[in-house]
Design brief:
Strand order of the largest sheet: 3-2-1-7-18
Structural class: alpha/beta
Number of helices: 12
Shape: globular
Length: 455
């Protein structure tokens, strides 16, 4: 008898799960139907700011596989503009609403829940006005591109995290006057303040008006269209508002069905990405995962995790064995002329996790200092005072700096001490690094500081 797999969500996690399950089980053994609420599936959401900014030429460049490819080459029935609105675990069916509002039932034997994350949207007067845009999905990005074609002059970006900063730069590239507002005292709260301060200077150099420590109180509108964003200190005229306030796991559908969620609001799974409900799996931005340094549950919305978790779920559904071992919180971005990267814990997060963190910042160059094109970079390493174990690292620098975070992420993954890191056999040639790579310099300086404290 043919088993039925239903997948909720047609992007990274959902389609990775569907594809992996298909590779191990043929259509005669496993029927796969995937439902995607939006108009596009299997695309790079991380590329949306670069599409809006004009660095990516067209929408098609961000789409990995079209629905007909899944249908013809993978025998996966991918249905767009179809939203799953209810899961009935007793009857083993999902209720699906199509774009006309009609409803139907789809039975399942196995279920993958992968609807991603939902953007934080402020519950403020005027938040529903025309001209207020989020950038969570490719449909959102297309809507913003269409708004830009109408010739706006001024944009206000709300939120100074990764997406907010990338969108502020994208708006500048489009020739708009841009204001950035955030309630925090620094941009990039995922960095320590001494590293995040560099980003503020870069934004101002780009021409962005940066307003930190201010919260939006309302959006002023006229005729249903936004005209300004008002904080407690000022009114910022705007033809466009771009929201970059972060996300939370899209777990409401699962929770309503009785599938357990964790303290982060993410769906609870084991290492094989199976929920506590037999035959029900979850993957991607909707799930809660395990942080290998803090040893605490976290919800981190990244395509890297989503693809890996979807792959794990699909392998297991297909009859194989795979597990997802957790995360260390590695992320990278480009903000103005700076490459920005981080992994592990910030100083504040390390304190909260019960460590006694010691941080050391070093300034070096991306290449040998005498070699043409060498650029400045700063790297910060955070270690535990008692054990010397690496807890986290941050990098802010120009071209050639950020991908060094990967070496630090590997060291973090394997619970190395900073003293052990000083002996790492990293590559060297003048066009790529100084003879002492900045990673090694930072590890050595941190180890020396720990030695001084212990003596």
């Amino acid at each position: 008898m043919t088993e039925r797999l239903v997948v909720i969500g047609g992007d990274a996690a959902g389609m990775s799960a569907a594809s992996q399950a298909r590779r191990r089980r043929g259509p005669e053994d496993l029927r796969i139907v995937a439902f995607e609420k939006g108009s596009h599936a299997s695309y790079s959401a991380c590329g949306i700011p670069y599409l809006v900014g004009g660095e990516v030429a067209d929408v098609e460049s961000l789409i990995s596989r079209r629905p007909e490819v899944f249908r013809d080459e993978f025998a996966i029935d991918l249905r767009l503009r179809s939203e799953v609105v209810e899961i009935d675990l007793d009857r083993r069916v999902v209720t699906v609403r199509d774009e006309e509002g009609g409803r139907g039932l789809e039975p399942f034997d196995q279920l993958v829940i992968a609807p991603g994350a939902v953007p934080a949207r402020p519950d403020l007067p005027g938040a529903g006005a025309r001209g207020v845009h989020g950038v969570q999905t490719l449909d959102d990005g297309i809507a913003l591109l269409e708004a830009l074609e109408r010739g706006p002059r001024r944009a206000v970006v709300v939120g100074a995290g990764y997406i907010g900063l990338e969108m502020a730069e994208a708006m500048v590239r489009r020739g708009l006057e841009v204001s950035l507002v955030d309630g925090g005292e620094q941009p990039m709260s995922t960095l320590d303040p001494d590293m995040g301060a560099l980003i503020t200077d870069a934004l101002r150099d780009l021409g962005v008006q940066v307003h930190l420590g201010e919260r939006i109180e309302c959006f002023e509108e006229s005729g249903g269209r936004v005209r300004a964003a008002r904080t407690g200190s000022r009114a910022l005229p705007a033809d466009l508002i771009v929201l970059g306030l972060g996300t939370r796991p899209n777990s409401a559908l699962a929770e309503a069905a009785g599938i357990p969620v964790g303290e982060t609001s993410g769906i609870r799974t084991n290492r094989r990405m199976r929920t506590p409900v037999e035959g029900v799996w979850a993957a991607g931005d909707c799930v809660e995962t395990f942080h290998r340094v803090s040893r605490q549950p976290v919800a981190i919305a990244l395509g890297t995790h989503a693809n890996k978790q979807g792959r794990v779920a699909g392998i297991n559904i297909g009859g194989g064995y795979a597990s997802f071992p957790g995360v260390v919180g590695t992320a990278v971005s480009k903000i103005c002329q700076y490459e920005v990267a981080r992994t592990g814990l910030t100083t504040a997060e390390a304190l909260e996790a019960g460590f006694e963190p010691v941080g050391e910042i070093v300034e070096s160059t991306t290449r040998a200092g005498y070699f043409p094109g060498a650029r400045m970079m700063k790297i910060k390493i955070i270690a535990d005072r008692g054990t010397g174990r690496l807890l986290g690292a941050q990098i802010v620098g120009q071209e050639g700096a950020a991908k060094r975070i990967d070496a630090l992420a590997v060291a973090l993954w394997h619970e190395m001490t900073v003293e052990e890191m000083t002996g790492l056999d990293l590559s060297y040639a003048p066009p790529f690094a100084p003879v002492w790579d900045p990673v090694l310099i930072a590890a050595r300086k941190t180890a020396e500081r720990l030695d001084r404290h212990s003596s």
